[in-house]
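Entry 14. Ran structure prediction on the chain below.
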Amino acid sequence: MKEKVYEFLKTIPKGKVVTYGQIAEYLGNKKLARVVGNILHHNPDESKYPCYKVVNHKGFLSSHFAFGGIEKQKEKLEEERILISHNKVDLTKYQWKNN
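Output, structure tokens:
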């Protein structure tokens, strides 16, 4: 399952984000969102698997971002011209609809 999660991350376009639930749904069970979060927390290579592009269902950044915390996640998203306000992404603007 984790290989599928990591491969999914590589398909997210520049300037877009997805939610944990979206990835879980891609895996076939929307209830696996927490499992997805755990897998992402153990990401072996941030540059190869861009887990910083994953936010919660309301668009909030992860306070437990594995590669430097919330400020690092914010920095990485802003590098892709994604606007962050109060540690939140506007999903209506930046969420990738992968269906």
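The CA atoms of residues 28 and 64 lie 25 Å apart. Will compare against last week's run tomorrow.
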